[in-house]
Design goal:
CATH superfamily: 2,3-Dihydroxybiphenyl 1,2-Dioxygenase, domain 1
CATH architecture: Roll
Strand order of the largest sheet: 2-3-4-1-5-8-7-6
Number of strands: 13
Low-confidence stretches: none
Number of domains: 1
Mean pLDDT: 95
Helix content: 10-25%
Oligomer: single chain
Radius of gyration: 16 Å
Structural class: mainly beta
């Protein structure tokens, strides 16, 4: 598996995204997810993207179809992890490394589904897998999004998360780096941190860039 994108819980309409814009990131297009009740703002890099996600329609987010994802709880409960991590197949892999159930929201094309980790508690990120996903730099021209020309941020080269509780089997299967802590925090490394610089987006977002 390889990283496809990350989501971070934000307030309605994602005002926290201004902190990323002030840093110099170029924002791509946002989405509304019909039937799922969520909407986003997105920032793209060559190999992955960051999604700021919120509830746009509480009834849809709490619907029978969406309920198994626990997105309503994840995006409305301040004690839940504010993160989600989506993976896609690596060069020789087709399946998720963790046990999943299939979720087929209305906004996906017919026959396409998302594999969502079966046993991830709210204390850790939502883990999910999209078998058809590709790196943003490989998207077709009609879907292509602006990538980042500033600060030399081209590739997400690693992520590190804090763990506020014992890890599930799904979290361990991701192979990601976790550190024990009492608060939720996501650190994203770009281009192997070759410039040796850090940008801390707290208190706007529980997010640190290392580049």
């Amino acid at each position: 598996m390889e990283l496809d994108h990350l989501f971070i819980r934000v307030q309605a309409d994602g005002p926290e995204g201004q902190a990323l814009r002030d840093f110099g990131l170029i924002e791509g297009s946002g989405n509304r997810h019909p039937g799922q009740g969520t909407a986003n703002r997105r920032f793209f890099f060559n190999n992955a993207f960051i999604e700021l996600l919120w509830i746009a329609d509480a009834a849809e987010a709490g619907s029978e179809q969406t309920r198994p994802t626990m997105l309503h709880e994840r995006l409305s409960d301040s004690t839940a992890s504010p993160f989600g991590v989506c993976f896609r197949p690596g060069a020789a892999e087709e399946r998720a490394a963790f046990a999943t159930f299939d979720y087929a929201p209305a906004y996906l094309p017919p026959g396409m589904s998302i594999g969502i980790a079966s046993d991830a508690p709210l204390s850790e990120p939502m883990w999910f897998f999209l078998a058809s996903a590709k790196a943003p730099a490989a998207w077709p021209p009609e879907r292509r999004q602006p990538l980042q020309p500033h600060h030399g941020l081209t590739q997400i080269s690693g992520i590190r998360l804090t763990a506020t509780a014992p890890l599930s089997a799904a979290a361990l299967a991701t192979g990601l780096h976790f550190i024990p802590a009492n608060e939720h925090l996501l650190e994203i490394s770009f281009d192997n941190e070759k410039r040796g610089l850090t940008q801390d987006f707290r208190p706007h977002l529980p997010l640190i860039f290392k580049y």
